[in-house]
């Protein structure tokens, strides 16, 4: 057993006066570089980054004619994906076959939100044209080849203001829209059945809790995060952040936790029972986060 000891003379390393300069010990041997370890660390780090870059994680490109503004995945069919674009076009994609199943035409403004019903057979979308549309979602056929076809909406709901987000109830034929206020709609009625507001001039996003399905959370333009309950028809709690929160999602396993995407380039995870402080903070450098999706109890993905 070998034990290496380090012995330093305090007088040699301590300055007599605060104005004295600190001694810097260097090895002046020309065969050794003073930053050799630092250079080797940077080289190893760059090699690891390049290995990930050339690992080819890219699978396929699903083209749209304009920028994509929102995404939604089918809860019943894993290979079905909805994508809404800024030109009002919505496409249903078959991911394994990399083909378009349907083009949902009807919106004249940018699509700001898409959400599936729990059965996976219908979906709702909202747009800046002050309308909400309900669509039928087809299944992917077994035969290969392109099957792209245009389809119109089954139902249309007209609002008073432009919509910023939408989410469907987990059990009932209800959905909530975010705009100037939070409106709760039924499939069978053309007018909202409930309206919620709590001081914010605009609501940016809305999400229903997967366990307590009557509880939903919203993010506002006044940097607020609010919790509501459909059963009491009134707000529950409100939290004001230092910067604006652009998106929110609930944890699918631990449904009392939710994660928010903030403009300070951070993700904040809160327990709805204890809103005094964040349970976890994920720091993302130099990215303003606008989209957030919780994949599991410990995995989330975001978009700038």
Characterise the protein shown here.
This protein has helices spanning about 10-15, 35-55, and strands at about 70-75, 80-85, 90-95, 100-105, 110-115, 120-125, 130-135, 150, 155-160, 165-170, 175-180, 180-185, 195, 205-210, 215-220, 225-230, 235-240, 245-250, 255-260, 265-270, 280-285, 290-295, 300-304. It starts with 9 loop residues before the first helix and ends with a strand. It has 2 helices and 23 strands. The protein is mainly beta and about 300 residues long.
Q: What is the number of strand segments? A: 23
Q: What is the multimeric organization of the chains shown?
A: single chain
Instruction: Determine the mean pLDDT.
Output: 83
Shape: extended
Low-confidence stretches: 294-299
- Kindly state the percentage of residues in helix: under 10%
Strand order within the widest beta sheet:
1-2-3-4-8
Structural class: mainly beta
Distance between the termini: 54 Å
Short description:
The chain has 2 helices and 23 strands. It is mainly beta and 304 residues long. It has a 5-stranded mixed sheet with strand order 1-2-3-4-8, with no helix packed on it. Strands 5-6-7-9 form a 4-stranded antiparallel sheet, with no helix packed on it.
């Amino acid at each position: 057993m070998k034990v290496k000891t380090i012995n330093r003379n305090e007088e040699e390393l301590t300055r007599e006066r605060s104005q004295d300069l600190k001694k810097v010990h260097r090895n002046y041997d020309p065969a050794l570089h003073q930053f050799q370890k630092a250079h080797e660390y940077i080289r190893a780090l760059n090699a690891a980054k390049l290995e990930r870059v050339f690992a080819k994680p890219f699978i396929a490109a699903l083209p749209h004619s304009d920028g994509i503004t929102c995404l939604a995945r089918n809860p019943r069919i894993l290979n079905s994906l909805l994508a809404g674009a800024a030109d009002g076009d919505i496409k249903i994609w078959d991911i394994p076959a990399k083909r378009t199943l349907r083009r949902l035409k009807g919106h004249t403004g940018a699509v700001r939100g898409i959400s599936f019903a729990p059965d996976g057979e219908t979906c709702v979308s909202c747009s800046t044209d002050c309308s909400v549309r309900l669509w039928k979602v087809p299944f992917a056929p077994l035969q290969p080849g392109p099957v792209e076809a245009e389809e119109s909406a089954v139902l249309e709901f007209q609002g008073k203001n432009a919509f910023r987000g939408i989410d469907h109830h987990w059990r009932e034929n209800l959905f909530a829209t975010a705009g100037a206020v939070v409106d709760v709609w039924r499939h069978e009625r053309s007018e909202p059945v409930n309206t919620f507001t709590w001081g914010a001039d605009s609501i940016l996003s809305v999400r229903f809790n997967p366990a307590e399905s009557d509880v939903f959370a919203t993010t506002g333009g006044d940097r607020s995060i609010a919790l509501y309950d459909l059963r009491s028809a009134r707000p529950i709690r409100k939290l004001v952040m230092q910067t604006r929160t652009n998106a929110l999602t609930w944890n699918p396993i631990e449904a009392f936790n939710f994660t928010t995407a903030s403009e300070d380039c951070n993700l904040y995870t809160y327990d709805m029972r204890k809103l005094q402080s964040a349970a976890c903070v994920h720091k993302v450098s130099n990215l303003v986060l606008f989209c957030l999706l919780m994949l599991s109890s410990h995995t989330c993905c975001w978009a700038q």
